[in-house]
Design goal:
- With 260 residues, this protein is of the alpha+beta class.
- 40% of the residues lie in helices and 18% in strands.
- It has a single domain (7-253), classed as Heat Shock Protein 90, CATH 3.30.565.10.
- A seven-stranded antiparallel β-sheet has the order 1-2-3-7-4-5-6, sandwiched between helices.
- Strand 4 (217-222) and strand 5 (225-230) form a beta hairpin.
- The longest helix is centred in the middle third of the chain and has 22 residues, at 95-116.
Length: 260
């Protein structure tokens, strides 16, 4: 009965299915009841979900707001993966923003490779050969570019106390130790988990450059917390359930190409 697919939630759904299918290795059958909504079925085909679970279907993505979905998936820092989903927008994204967006995404890849999976994921699967994977979407619609990036690691609120115990103690003493405040602190201070100069700045940079763009949005979900900055206005949300990972969503306006 699904009627609409949102890019951030859809990315999290796809990444979880990648992880689960690898974990069960065919030992658990996966049943699929095709959605009645044709566009939703097109989306599931476009992002590779239908092929992932081995379902045969004659559906072919054809609608404009479906075929412009791009998907990337990896387990290392790979700038070419950025090109897979965003190269086609060269000239449409403001140059300064494109540079910062590239920096933020490659920084997110680096954090996944070096830190996100240092702690076991608390979902009970106890996977010993946990891959340090990330997933990324992009979509153009109504003059805006949306980019979603996620990993299924420990999350910012769990890694921050381990990597920086003294800093976490200070945060806790201020009564700001919940997940949303942990994300907020990581953004504001651009916390470096490796103590390398320049490392850890990507998250703060991408928030700063996006907030300077009119009609722009950035949303960071991590475990039970959400940080949003929409048109320069920040809000924090605390949830009862955890996504068991981190997901970053950006939405920025595209420039009109100039004709020569």
């Amino acid at each position: 009965m699904t009627e609409k697919m949102y890019s951030d939630g859809t990315l999290l759904f796809l990444s979880e299915m990648h992880r689960l299918t690898r974990h069960v290795q065919g030992g658990v059958p996966i049943k699929f009841i095709a959605p009645k909504n044709d566009k939703v079925l097109q989306v599931l085909k476009q992002i590779g979900f239908i092929d992932l679970i081995g379902v045969k279907t004659q559906i072919t993505p054809k609608d404009d707001d479906v075929v412009n979905w791009r998907v990337a998936h990896g387990a290392q820092v790979d700038g070419e993966k950025y090109d897979d989903v965003l190269a086609q927008y060269d000239g449409d994204i403001a140059q300064a923003l494109q540079k910062k967006l590239f920096t933020g995404i490659t920084e997110a890849m680096t954090n996944v490779a070096n830190h996100a999976y240092d702690l076991n994921r608390i979902d009970g699967l106890n996977i010993n050969d946990e891959s340090k994977e990330w997933w990324m979407f992009s979509q153009e619609k109504d003059g805006f570019l949306s980019v979603s990036f996620c990993d299924l690691g420990a999350g910012i609120p769990r890694t921050l106390p381990v990597k920086h115990p003294s800093l976490w103690k200070q945060i806790s003493m201020l009564g700001k130790s919940n997940d949303a405040d942990a994300i907020d602190h990581a953004v504001r201070k651009s916390v470096s988990r490796t103590n390398d100069v320049g490392r850890g700045n990507g998250l703060g940079q991408i928030v700063q450059v996006v907030q300077a763009q009119n009609q722009s949005e950035v949303v960071i979900y991590s475990n039970k917390g959400t940080f949003t900055k929409i048109n320069g206005s920040k809000r924090l949300f605390r949830h009862s359930d955890s996504i068991l990972g981190t997901l970053i969503y950006w939405k920025v306006p595209l420039q009109h190409k100039t004709s020569t």
